């Protein structure tokens, strides 16, 4: 079941009405309803996936209880490694088995020793990268004694499977989300309205901007030999907006839906394309994953402490692992390595903590230096996204080589004027709301103008949104 489908448009109101008008006086039943609804939501793709998420839930629930009881350091480490190996093992098998097998075979063939090995026809369970990291954070935090173990299985199952953010995040920390299932929740009208605003904005991002950009990005990447450098550059820019609006749109709908049920999820995007350097970009892009790797990988490795070699090593590890998390393809690893190269000069010059505030914090218009910084960062990001989108590394290199050829100065073969205007409108609204959690949060407008603004967004969604094809979100494949 996907957010931009008729199924979800029916599913959400039914669950909402049951939650607030039938089971509103019983917290235990509310939590049970969330578990049932989440399993229906997840099983809509393939009911066999439910056994996988249930298995992961049972393992980490048990590990948490045993960790809290155990005082022996060696046994506690053994329990933690049980959780790590089970979760990473499941993720590794379903997501990376064929990748490692194919590269293993290719390596032997390269040295003149061909071997035969058959790949498995493995279906990647939707959202496995997200919920395995979420349950892992619980086990690690219980191990570190930052969080008491949860003994209520329904509460823990609700935390793991919470349907708004189950398949594409935000990757919630147990310290934030788990306690919310233990407290009574009352309906908050203002929070619900804010949630609806965020859902509306997320839907606009997805079906109007992302899905329309996808048409032209696909044309460019799938037929790159037929187009000029200028067209391919335009296709890369369209993909840059596609992936941002697709993924941040999902996060907005997830966070907004959670608000309808009385839950607060962490912000996952903070206007990353207004970043003035690549370090600021990574503080604003996919925040839940970036901070997860920071807290559970980067800092345990030593972070920015130690000698220069260790600092460089840790930067490359964190970006390469982040790239590999996205998919079993060398393109994602190169994408991660390229971002590490972008980040490295900033770290070496101690500039990676610059720009901790939002651009133009006290101004309506950015300075010339800020504009240059944003354009350079955006340009570097576009180049990196080419590797992310390409089928192979060779595909990406050829694509970029053609962009930086003489045909870059030719007129593009396609110039979708309506879409360009919509992107410009989108960026203006994002700039206007850049100091908020999302662009149209609590608009300070006269009521009549505010409602006119909402109707205009609905109008644009209706006339320009792509609904018929039920286009899935990009990050479902990760």
Characterization of the model:
- With 478 residues, the protein is mostly helical.
- Helix content is 67%, strand content 0%.
- It has two domains: 6-186, no CATH class; 190-276 and 355-477, no CATH class.
- It is built from 17 helices and no strands.
Q: What ranges have pLDDT less than 50 throughout 5 or more consecutive residues?
A: none
SSE topology string:
HHHHHHHHHHHHHHHHH
Instruction: Specify the number of helices.
Output: 17
Sum up the overall morphology in one term.
globular
The end-to-end distance, rounded to whole angstroms, is 16 Å
Give the amount of beta strand, in percent: under 5%
Radius of gyration: 23 Å
Q: How many strands?
A: 0
Main β sheet profile = none
Percent range for helical residues? Answer: 55-70%
Structural class: mainly alpha
Count of folded domains: 2
Task: Compute the average pLDDT.
Answer: 89
Summary of the model, kept short:
The protein has helices spanning 6-22, 27-43, 49-69, 73-110, 128-143, 153-161, 174-182, 189-222, 229-260, 278-284, 287-301, 308-326, 330-348, 368-389, 393-403, 417-432, 447-464.
Topology readout:
Blueprint: H1 6-22, H2 27-43, H3 49-69, H4 73-110, H5 128-143, H6 153-161, H7 174-182, H8 189-222, H9 229-260, H10 278-284, H11 287-301, H12 308-326, H13 330-348, H14 368-389, H15 393-403, H16 417-432, H17 447-464
Helix pairs in contact: 1-2, 2-6, 3-4, 3-5, 3-6, 4-5, 6-7, 8-9, 8-16, 8-17, 9-14, 9-15, 11-12, 12-13, 13-14, 14-15
